[in-house]
Input
Amino acid sequence: MQVLLSEELHRVKECPGDGCGWLFFDRSRNQSRRWCNGQDCGNRVRVRQHYQRHRISKKGEDNA
Ligand SMILES: [Zn+2]
Output
């Protein structure tokens, strides 16, 4: 029972989405799930990371 409980808790994750913080239960076998619903939050952050990477590389070009 105790082992089962800790195993279950280990699968509870907090969505890293911007301003989301949702807790969800990762039922995937390898616990690869990251987002609360895998659609809205994942996409939004992916777009923003892409944008930031673009800006950083542009800045680097300017310095060089
Ligand atoms: Zn989320």
About this structure: The first strand starts at residue 12 and ends at 14. The chain has one domain: 2-63. Residues 15 and 35 are 5 Å apart (CA to CA).
